[in-house]
Amino acid sequence: MRIANLAGRGVFVLGGEDGDHQAAEIAAVSGGRFGPDLGQIYQNWGRFREWAATLAPDALHTHAFPLNRALLGAPSPAPRQVFAVGLNYRDHVAETGFAVPEQLPPVFTKYVSAFSGPDSTVVLPVGGHVDWEVELVVIVGRELHRADPEQVWPALAGVTAGQDLSERISQFRGPAAQFGLGKSFPGFAPQGPWLVTPDELADRDDLELGCAIDGQEVQKARTGDLLFPVPELLSRLSHTVVLLPGDVIFTGTPAGVGMSREPQRFLQPGETLDSWIEGVGTLRQTFVAGR
Ligand SMILES: NC(=O)NC(O)C(=O)O
Is the CB of 87 under 6 A from ligand 1? Predict the structure, then answer.
């Protein structure tokens, strides 16, 4: 099942990964029981999944209309908590020169005001060094507290693609790093194109992900290489915090970021960044100069 945020309303997505897609309003299909607000859908995720499993295929087609990608927003647009993770792929740890995390990778946030849908124009902060970081993003469907790893996938609503866009000067300026601020300029957390439930994925623990600038590939890896895979990562997080329905977790980026290149390379006005995750879909960001 695929669920999208179409202009703030929850919709089912119909159609293949690359073809033309159609949408069907969850509120219309459910006769007002679920949606249109996506937060309400995540709050009732268990009941929503049970009901959705009983739907006949025709129930969606009766309500279907062409999906306009330009209207898509982040699949969970107003989570109560957003977690992001650094240093979660060995080759990315190596390129940054940090030590390999043992108990838990560094955890920070990306503020919700940085969220956008899958296709967007991003303003580059004046004098900044903006870097790319493609990431698997997971969305919580059921509360997790002190969970064991095997309890994690069944409690997730699904996965989506994300970019942890990062302005490196403000991220590392001052006596202590400012990951949350450096990674939260407007538009720095594009996500989408939709949420895919884990049962739809060929192998939920091993998905290819990557990104390219103006067609030139700069990152390519597999989530099977995560140092703390999704079940382990969320289990460990849940031993400190309570993970709530609708919460968004950026799971870390693989090697290939611009900051670690020789010479360093950052996003420039006029460039386009395409990101993808196998079985999920694509993001497209174009960059313009700030004033
Ligand atoms: N997301 C992620 O992996 N981030 C970093 O480690 C970083 O900012 O380099």
Answer: yes
- Please give the Cα distance from 78 to 167 (Å, whole number): 23
Question: 277 pLDDT band (50/70/90 cuts)?
Answer: very high
222-276 pLDDT per residue, tens: 999 999 999 999 999 999 999 999 999 999 999 999 999 999 999 999 999 999 9
Q: Same domain for 194 and 62?
A: no
Supply the range of the domain harboring residue 94.
74-289
Residues 153, 98 share a domain: yes
Query: Average pLDDT, stretch 133-157?
Result: 98
The preferred substitution site among 257, 259, 261 for testing ligand 1, maximizing ligand atoms within 8 Å of CB, is: 257
Closest CA to 256 of 163, 172, 181, 191: 163
169 shares its domain with 38:
no
- CATH code of the domain covering residue 154: 3.90.850.10
Ligand 1 pocket test: pick from 89, 132, 138, 166 the residue with the most ligand atoms within 8 Å of its Cβ: 166
Same domain for 226 and 192: yes
> Is any atom of ligand 1 closer than 6 Å to the C-beta of 167?
no
What is the residue with the minimal CA distance to atom 2 of ligand 1?
86
23 C-alpha to center of ligand 1: Å? 34
**Whose CA is closest to 17, among 282, 287, 220?**
282
pLDDT in tens, 26-36: 999 999 999 99
Query: Which atom of ligand 1 sits closest to the CA of residue 168?
Result: 8
C-alpha of 90 from chain center: 20
- Residue 58's pLDDT is 87
Distance CA 279, CA 267 (A): 27
ipTM above 0.90, yes or no: yes
Return the pLDDT at 255: 98
Contact 227, 88 (CB under 8 A): yes
